[in-house]
Amino acid sequence: MTAEIVNLNRFRKRTDRETSKRQAQINRVKFGQTKAEKRRQEYEAQRDIKELTGKQLDKDDPAGA
Hints:
Layout: H1 8-31, H2 35-54
């Protein structure tokens, strides 16, 4: 009945790696987007800006005054 000798540095590093992997998995689910999703989102934002700019009224328009 001898106790198993454990290197505390290895144990600490292993637990740190495991917690980092768990956190990375959580972040992938929480923040992850594919490249296509990012591109589509950027395209839609640009389209919305262009649409709103086209509907904007000019303040210096003499015909509208």
